[in-house]
Amino acid sequence: MDSDDRNFGCRIVDENMFLLRKRIHEMKMVERNYEAPAGWMDWEKKYHLAYASHVHEGVGLLQKFLIGRRPSVGIMVLVGLSLPTAASLVLFNLVEACTWILNLLLHH
């Protein structure tokens, strides 16, 4: 088996992996006879099964996009998504800490 055969086999598995994950999730839900928790709102209970399907489809599209690109593009996409998220979290915590410190100083 040469390297081209091995790469082709991996590509087939990679292209169908998201579908496999989706089917496994669906089967687990059916096996467990899963129902949404009682504390959820009615619209959440109705949308729950479709939501899981939409999440799997979204992840699958992202996976297809990233696998079909150069690694540098994938890394840039992941960094581009993670940096604003991390910066927002740090900024939020900084504002909370400053608010706490100001409240502490003003009330003593």
Layout of secondary structure:
Layout: H1 3-32, H2 42-67, H3 71-106
Helix pairs in contact: 1-2
Architecture overview:
It is a single chain. By secondary structure, this protein is mainly α. 85% of the residues lie in helices and 0% in strands. The protein contains three helices and no strands. Helix 1 packs antiparallel against helix 2 (42-67). The longest helix is centred in the C-terminal third of the chain and has 36 residues, at 71-106. The chain starts with a helix and ends with a helix.
Task: Provide a short characterization of the protein structure.
By secondary structure, this protein is mainly α. It has three helices and no strands.
- Using the CA coordinates, give the radius of gyration: 22 Å
Mean of pLDDT: 79
Write the element-wise H/E pattern from the N-terminal end onward: HHH
Quaternary structure type: single chain
Low-confidence stretches: none
What would the keywords be for this entry?
single chain, 108 residues, 3 helices
